[in-house]
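USER: If only I could read backbone structure tokens as easily as an amino acid sequence. It would mean a lot if you studied the pair and described how this chain folds. Here is the record:
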Amino acid sequence: MMKYDKFIGWLLFLALLSIDSKYMLAQDGSTAFSFLNTTSSARIYGLGGINITNVDDNLFSTDQNPGLLGSEMSGQIGINYMRYLGDSNFAGIRYAHSSGQYGAWGASLQYFGYGSITAADETGVITGRFAPKDVAFSGVYSYDIYGNWRGGIAVKFLYSSYEQYNSIAVSTDLGVNYYNPDNDFSFSFVAANMGGQITKFNDQRDKLPIDLRLGVAKSFGEFPVRFSVNAWNLTKWHLPYIEAGDGTTTSDPQIKDSFSSNLFRHLVFGAELISSSKFYLTLGYNYKIRTDMSTYSRSFLSGFSLGGGLNTSRFRISLAFAQPHTGATTFMLNLTLNMDNIIN
């Protein structure tokens, strides 16, 4: 039996369990746990928020594709912080370590806090305040399958608390990546957020935001920029949105559902300056974010994101910035320490 046969078998087994749980635990419900689509990687956020192809030896690159985890990340520990919309603040910690000659494992804990919100009963009487939150604990394992192919699995235990409503769920990501370092070409496929609820918020089951994603990344010759295109929301074609117009009294909101709008709302574009191993700069464009914020007071920067980072042998620091709307500026910070180099 070849070294990767057992690993492939486990991936297929867990995939069947996850897909089965989708139908048994989440029939006829709404979508919940949307925080699963919020990245903890500043590099990915700077590339548009969705990226499954970014091959890097920083453990945060594995955020959306467990198939990118590798033994080259062994001994790394990282912390992340994000100032999100409103009073939302997200933070987390993760660690990676090698496992034998061909494998690696990792673990992470993510916290999503949404500030303090006024609570009221059905008659409108104020009853106090509450702090909604989501928590995700993840375990990741990857394996060098064959040649330039690597695969991985992430299992996430999820907890959500919104006032008196609580829910627990289990989610699974399956990812594979092909990377050819000779021509800097990366191709990835991810089945994300498969699973279901263990306990419900109320009497109705809620679906997880199950998704299929494809991505490619490539640099060209001596030109020091890597371009990437990632497609997500591939489980559905129609992603209509409402165009609010220019704010005048004569402009009525219109539903946009054309072929071109649906196509580009599935795609996220990224460009990354890679002229040096010591630093990087990123630019991303997410058309879905821009159209989701399609009001007349939308910022010119809506849909765009910027990022940059500094790399040393002992630590890495990454920053990212975006302004989805004039009233919403977001900021993300990653700090990664290479404990093996620090100790030695």
Notes: The first strand starts at residue 76 and ends at 83. The chain has one domain: 5-343. The two ends are 38 Å apart (CA to CA). The domain at 5-343 is CATH 2.40.160.60 (Porin).
